[in-house]
Amino acid sequence: MTATPTLRLENIHKQFHHTPVLSGIDLDVHQGDVVALIGASGSGKSTLLRCINLLEQLDDGQIWLSGDDISVPHINQDRVRSRIGVVFQALNLFPHLSVLDNVTLASKMILKKSKKEASENGMSLLEQVGLAAKAHDYPDRLSGGQQQRVALVRAIATNPDLLLLDEITSALDPQLVGEVLDLVRTLAHEGTTIVMATHEMAFAREVADTVVFLDGGVVCESGSAAEVLDTPREQRTKEFLHRFRGNLS
Amino acid sequence: MVSNPANARQPSEIELGRRAFRTQQSRKSVAISFASTLVFAIVLWFGVVNTPGWDLVQRSFFNLEVLQGAWPRVFEGLLLNIRVLLFAAVGVLILALLLATIRTLKGAIFFPLRVLATAYTDLFRGMPLIIVLYIVGFGIPGLGAFPRMPLEFWGTIALILTYSAYVAEVFRAGIESVHPSQRLAARSLGLSYGTTLRKIVMPQAIRKVTPALMNDFIAMQKDVGLISVLGAVDAVRAAQIETAQAFNFTPYVLAGLLFVLLALPMIRLTDWYTARLREREQMGSLV
């Protein structure tokens, strides 16, 4: 592969209070790739996403975003974060701003777009996801699924290089999961580069180009969705998937 | 501690370079803050000392001889302040907890109690402390129904009346901030209303409002000086007497410094405790 990867992780280490959480993660994500991180709770999926977004300081290793080393200590962290869109598990729209203001805040404050331009862009994005009618409502008037869709729109409104999704459907009622995943699917098909931590195996199989199984702080197995989920090579992957299916049935 | 492989692992060259850079950065910022503090102090010192009236001010506010002369009496007065403070703090805690509990009681039967408690907090939060001091300190003894008590006793009562109204509201905010599901969980275990309040709600509420309570304690620490208006010879009153005798304001400065020294440990403790709470809630994240 000759093209510069959108995201390159090399030898990522992170520990909390002497407990290692990540012990040497290597990963390349290319433009337009959709990577699904799977693994048990506590396997380091969220920590890895937080490290990429510079919310945690690395203990070792390097991170490149579109060729720039973002793990150097004198980096402008706000500038880096503005190039990465993030949606978390918990619903975290700003409750004191309308849906449209939530979506356009970063465009106005960071990209210095005019109010008109930001609003037009925001409205067209909201229209695409079928939430234009809610633009002037406040987040507490929306269902959880609608809130997560707005959060997704907010994350992509600034055209980030990379979109990080941290179990974005885990806090939702089962009947609301579908509409959020539909939007992620659309974004994936439009060529958005996505790294997502997820427990939705069926969804990972369908949209992910690469599935990465994290266990014990390292990449235990990675490959195409079919390889990892249907014909896993590693014993630990098999056990995890077996337990997971056991829980579902 | 058991050595584990992650600790034994040698950091890479890159990580060592980053750590060296961060150490260098923090050394640099310490040096800068030291230099800027020094410059600020020097400028302030010369700015004050070079004012035309400085000699006069120094003689009448920062006079060492007068300070030595005033020290025994002012210090003795401060001991009275500390005694009053301790009694008032205990009294405030008890009365405020009682008021807060009453104000959060549910049920129609308690309506009159709730109204009384609400009226109490409304009244004493609105009334200036100094007026409460006059009314309690001169009015109640005037009734002739109580045995003769020292002036500081009535001062303590006035402080308790005023501060318990504020502290009760702090407690109430704490009680109401405990999530309703905690009550539901406790009641569904079969705990009574009272036990739930005592064992489940109160411990969580008090933990949440502790910084605010400590702040109120600091405020009360200096308001204790107001009992001097009743004539009790506390640090402020003693300083007033010394000032009148020496025609010099240094005793006031002394009393003020003693009050600051008295408050400092509590102020630092509050800062430390607040920082610890914040650390716990933010889970050590960088932003």
Q: What is the number of helical segments of chain B per DSSP (H or I, 4+ residues)? A: 11
The pair of chains with the biggest contact is: A-B, 21 and 18 residues
Task: Say which CATH homologous superfamily of chain B is assigned.
Answer: MetI-like
> Which structural class matches the secondary elements of chain B?
mainly alpha
What percentage of residues of chain A falls in helices of 4 or more residues? 25-40%
Protein architecture, described:
The complex is a heterodimer of chains A (249) and B (287). Chain A is α/β, with parallel strands linked by helices. Helix content of chain A is 38%, strand content 24%. Chain A contains 9 helices and 10 strands. In chain A, the strands form 2 sheets. A 6-stranded mixed beta sheet of chain A has the order 6-7-8-3-9-10, with helices on both faces. In chain A, helix 6 (174-189) links the parallel strand 7 (162-166) and strand 8. Chain A is globular, with a radius of gyration of 18 Å. Chain B is an all-alpha fold and 287 residues long. Chain B is 81% helix and 0% strand. Chain B contains 11 helices and no strands. In chain B, helix 4 (64-104) packs across helix 11 (250-282), helix 8 (180-188) packs across helix 9 and helix 9 runs antiparallel to helix 11. Chain B is flat. Chains A and B meet through strand 1 and strand 4 of A and helix 1 and helix 2 of B.
Short précis:
Chain A has 249 residues and is an alpha/beta fold. Chain A has helices at 45-52, 77-82, 99-109, 115-128, 144-156, 174-189, 201-207, 225-230, 235-248; strands spanning 7-16, 19-29, 34-38, 60-65, 68-69, 84-87, 162-166, 194-197, 210-215, 218-223. Chain A is globular.
Which helices and strands appear, and what pairs or packs with what?
The complex is a heterodimer of chains A (about 250) and B (about 290).
Chain A: E1 7-16, E2 19-29, E3 34-38, H1 45-52, E4 60-65, E5 68-69, H2 77-82, E6 84-87, H3 99-109, H4 115-128, H5 144-156, E7 162-166, H6 174-189, E8 194-197, H7 201-207, E9 210-215, E10 218-223, H8 225-230, H9 235-248
Parallel strand pairs in A: 3-8, 3-9, 6-7, 7-8
Antiparallel strand pairs in A: 1-2, 1-4, 4-5, 9-10
Chain B: H1 5-8, H2 13-49, H3 54-61, H4 64-104, H5 111-126, H6 129-142, H7 151-177, H8 180-188, H9 193-223, H10 235-246, H11 250-282
Helix pairs in contact in B: 4-5, 4-7, 4-10, 4-11, 5-7, 6-7, 7-9, 8-9, 9-11, 10-11
